Amino acid sequence: MIELDTILRIENDRDYKLHLAMHNGEDDPLELFVNERESWQAWNEYKSPYKDEFNRQFIFSLIRFPSQKNRWLFGGIYEVLDRSSESYVIRLSNQHKEFIGRLLVDYQGAGARGRSFLFENQYPKMRVAEIFDREYTGETFEGFDNINMSFYQLENIFKKQQKEWMIPLQSIKGVYLITDKSNGKMYVGSAYGDYGIWSRWETYILTGHGWNEGLTTVINECGIEYARENFQFSLLEFYSMKIDSDVVRGREQYWKEVLCTRQFGYNLN
Question: What's the pLDDT score for residue 39?
């Protein structure tokens, strides 16, 4: 791998502080970068009441890329215009703007806790891992066997109508599982209509409950935010669109029995 400064040249590196954005136990900065760019900027604006972490002119931001070891997504360079007791006033710099969300950096980390580090000490340790053709927009499709996604992740895919997900999910019938991470309850469902799994899951994204009685009760009480925070989607089985739909329905009943989702989950039939 080539050194980062080969393509991302920084003059006067002592004018920069490195920001390493990682999951804080509540929010994932990578999801915010993809879905809520204003919230991602707010991560850079946050000022600790105990320490002036970004005490230089520029913030060089990297976002932890959790699906790959020692990988960080370039989140942009911000100029610090002013400082208050609670936040930084910043603006996105035009420096290397074309690489935001496209440049994946190989970097082992600073070897210490915290989010802010002296840029000149870390910059030489960084390498170019990959440059995407387009800005990163979320999870990549890695096959039907590997689908295990939060409602939040799935919602982003549907909002952007990502073809790398849409095309394969429209091409299969299947049996799926929704897991409620807050209590461990599960729901088994099936998709066998036109446009397969894609069409069925789209209903969940629009309603939060997909018109399933057990899930509808929960969403009516708690709102669609409950689904965003707690529902996890996966595929149990998948089939060609040519297979008889009765086979899919039969397998749905099988998995309801195996996982006891009538007794302990959200299936009511």
Answer: 93
Quote the pLDDT of residue 160. 79
Low-confidence stretches of the chain (pLDDT beneath 70): 67
88: which DSSP letter? E
Per-residue pLDDT, 164: 87
Count of Cβ atoms closer than 10 Å to residue 169 Cβ = 25
Kindly report whether the global pTM for this prediction surpasses the value 0.85: no
CA angle at residue 202 from 201 to 205, to 5 degrees? 95
Among 247, 158, 228, CA closest to 200:
158
239: β partners:
173
Q: Which residues pair with 80 in a beta bridge?
A: 90
Tally helices (H) and strands (E) across the chain: 10, 11
Residues 214 and 185 sit within 8 Å (Cβ to Cβ): no
Give dist(CA 49, CA 80) in Å, integer.
Answer: 17
C-alpha 67, offset from chain centre: 10
Q: Exposed, middle or buried, 28 (CB in 10 Å: 0-12/13-18/19+)? A: buried
**What is the sign of the dihedral through the CA atoms of 98, 100, 103 and 106?**
positive
Question: How many other C-beta atoms are found inside a 10 Å radius of the C-beta of residue 94?
Answer: 10
CA distance 223 to 227: 8
Q: How many residues does the chain have?
A: 269
Distance CA 210, CA 232 (A): 14
First and final C-alpha spacing in the chain: 55
Q: What is the pLDDT of residue 19?
A: 97
Distance CA 198, CA 182 (A): 25
Q: Which stretches within 171-260 are classed as H helix?
A: 196-207, 213-222, 224-230, 245-259
* Euclidean distance between CA atoms 76 and 96, whole angstroms: 8
